[in-house]
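[job 4471] stage=fold_predict status=RUNNING
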Amino acid sequence: MTGAPLPDRLDTARLTLRPFRLEDVERFAPLIGDQEVARWLARVPHPYGPEDGRAWVALAARNRTERASLDLLAVRRDDSQPVGGIGVILADGEVGYWLGQPHQGVGYATEMLRAVVPAAFALGLPRLWARTAPDNHRSHRLLDKVGFLPLDAADQYELTAGRWRFLTPETA
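[job 4471] inference complete, writing structure tokens
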């Protein structure tokens, strides 16, 4: 991985992805704390309250400083409303993401992932990978849509930097 600085923000057509802030906790904690969101996330406690959100903001900031991970809150560009989050563990390229229920099904996850993938590869990661729950069909479709390929290991997907370079904008 290169010593390139981690991006402070990534913009898509409808979203800005930026580091989590303490003032965001009141608005993102209820989204990730929803049982229907939390059930798909391996590392998120439930119930999830403001204390968890504040602890997450501190951990994400520390991980950023130590270049351990790139964790970004996705907010709508028109009103700064949080919709979800996405992160990459920089040691091995693991990608994780979530969307609040009111924001699912409108393409935000695709925008988030399509913004983070090139940023992660620009940092020098040779590959990205994600693990999904066997019955998380939305996540499987998202990864397929962005160009990740299933691995032999059950419910794991991978996208290499080499493959990414050859995908068309409509695919990636």
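[job 4471] summary: Strands lie at 10-11, 15-18, 69-76, 82-89, 94-99, 127-131, 149-150, 156-160.
[job 4471] exit 0
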